[in-house]
Structure formats: C-alpha cells, structure tokens
Design brief:
Elements: H1 2-17, H2 30-43, H3 46-102, E1 113-115, E2 118-120, H4 123-140, E3 146-154, E4 157-164, E5 170-175, E6 180-185, H5 186-190, H6 194-206, H7 208-232, H8 240-256, H9 275-292
Antiparallel strand pairs: 1-2, 1-3, 3-4, 4-5, 5-6
C-alpha cells in the first residue's frame, strides 16, 4: 500500500510540476517523500525513514551523473564538429592565399580576359563572348545532362563554365582557385547584360581579402571551440564518491530490513501486538509481495 502511494505521488508530482517527459515514471519527488516519512512513522522503524532520504539523494545524484555523461557525449560531438570546421577553414585559407598571390589587377584600362582562345581587353566584348559560349553549351546539352569545364581566364585565375539540365536548367560560372561560384537560371541567363556579368566576376575577385578574413575568423572560432570542448572532455563526475557512499548505505539498510529467521507469515500477528508492531508486520508482508511481483508501469 505504502509503495503504491509513493509511486502515485511520484507520478502526480512530476505531472504537476511539468517534469514528466516520458511515459515511465521512476523518480520520487518531494511529495512522495512525505508518504515515505508517514510510512516510517507508522512502522516506528528509523531505518525506513533513513532509506527514504538515502534513496532520494541517490536518485538526485544519479540524475546529475546521467546529465554529466550526456554532456561528455555532447562535448565529443562538438569537438569533432569544431575540428572539421577548423580543417575546412584552413584549407579555404590556403586556397585563398594562393589565389590572391596569383591574382592580376584588371581595374580600369588594365582589364584583360580570355574566353576560349581569344583574349579580350573590353569588358563588353569579353562578356558577350562568354555569354555566347555558355549559351551554346547549354543548347548542346540534352535534357537531364550536365557539362562543365574550363572556359577562359580572368585576372590570372582559371574560369570554369557549367550547365546543368537535370532539374531546372542552370548556368554557372566558377573561379575554383578562389572558391567563387555564380549561378543563374536559364531565364536569368538569357536576360543578363554581358558587361555586367564580367563586372560581377571582377568584384568577387577583388573582394578575396574580405573572404580570407572571414575564413581566418572562422578558423579561430572553430579552434577556440575545439579547445574548450577538449578541456572538458574526460572530467570526472564531481559526486562519484558521494554516490558510491550512498549506494553502500542503501545496501546496508536493505540488508538490515530483510526479514529475520522467523518472518511473519501473511499479515497474521499476535493479539498482544501493539499497533506499531501490527503496522510493521503488515508493511513487511506487503513489501515481500511487491518484491516478488513488481508493479506495472504507472503510464498505461
């Protein structure tokens, strides 16, 4: 009976406080502890009251330990992700630095661009040639096909052009060494202004220093995050020793509460027994029955 009251109180306590997150309830809250206290008072056995307190504290520390283990698992995942981000940023930085070192100045009259085998010094002419070459590539690619490859050079960097007709038709321009990609739908490509197309590519090339700064910042942030996670991985649970002592005390109390060599059979007690003794006998009998037949889950 008392065990049933404790389980019901645990369930009600979690629902009332909004802490019930699963279909199973296995924790005893503050309200359930009051029933354990009543049981201890009724039996007159201080060990039962102590066991209720020990069980509650062990349950609390057990939850903290599970949270600690979950945090350790999360930290390992965070470390792996941060290290991948740092490596990706480092590769990006190396590519950008190499591209910047090879980059030529095309501002103003210094402009020069190659499309196919033809070198252009006028942006409008270069843009027109580029647009025509990629439009021809798009027309030559059948539905569902993909075609990409080098199409020229700009500012000393190799320029690639691609068409993709697998879903919606798409045209793209890329400077792989600098990580620059421009993509257009077929409709956008048909109406694009050639000189503006070249100007957009130039602006992306001239802005590589800003992209490099962003990549370095990302590398620094990822490295710092990895270091923070690494410093916390492997940290011991602060209450391990206390949890071990509680588990030891639980075992001692449980052993002390085991029935003696002449256990009470059923609920029968002597007519001379006092009320506390009768209550203790009743609880002992109920406890033995419940231990042999664990109660079903409260959540059904």
């Amino acid at each position: 009976m008392w065990q049933t009251l404790e389980r019901k109180a645990a369930f009600i306590n979690q629902v009332a406080t909004g802490r019930a997150t699963d279909r199973e309830v296995d924790d005893i809250g503050d309200q359930a502890l009051s029933y354990a206290e009543v049981k201890a008072l009724a039996t007159g056995n201080p060990l039962i009251l102590e066991k209720a307190a020990v069980d509650t504290e062990a349950s609390r520390l057990g939850r903290l330990r599970r949270a600690h283990l979950d945090d350790q698992h999360r930290l390992r995942g965070a470390l792996d992700a941060a290290e991948r981000r740092a490596r990706t940023a480092a590769e990006r930085i190396a590519a950008l630095e190499a591209a910047i070192s090879r980059r030529l100045d095309t501002r103003g009259e210094r402009f020069g661009m190659t499309v196919g085998d033809t070198r252009h010094t006028k942006r409008a002419e270069a843009g027109g040639h580029l647009h025509a070459a990629l439009s021809a590539r798009l027309a030559a690619t059948g539905a569902g096909g993909v075609d990409s490859g080098p199409i020229g050079t700009l500012a000393g960097l190799e320029l690639h052009g691609g068409v993709d007709r697998r879903d919606d038709d798409e045209v793209s321009l890329a400077l792989p060494q600098a990580g620059v990609v421009l993509a257009y739908s077929a409709q956008e490509w048909a109406g694009i202004e050639p000189a503006g197309l070249v100007g957009r590519l130039e602006r992306r090339i001239q802005g590589l220093e800003g992209v490099l700064a962003d990549a370095r910042a990302e590398q620094g942030a990822a490295t710092a995050e990895a270091e923070r996670a690494r410093a916390r991985i492997g940290a011991p649970f602060a209450y391990d020793e206390a949890l071990r002592r509680l588990a030891h005390r639980q075992a001692e109390i449980t052993e002390a509460l085991l029935p003696g060599p002449e256990p009470v059979s059923g609920e029968a007690v002597s007519a001379d027994s006092s009320a506390p003794e009768r209550m203790a006998a009743r609880l002992a009998a109920l406890g033995r029955r419940e231990e042999g037949h664990p109660p079903p889950s409260l959540a059904r």
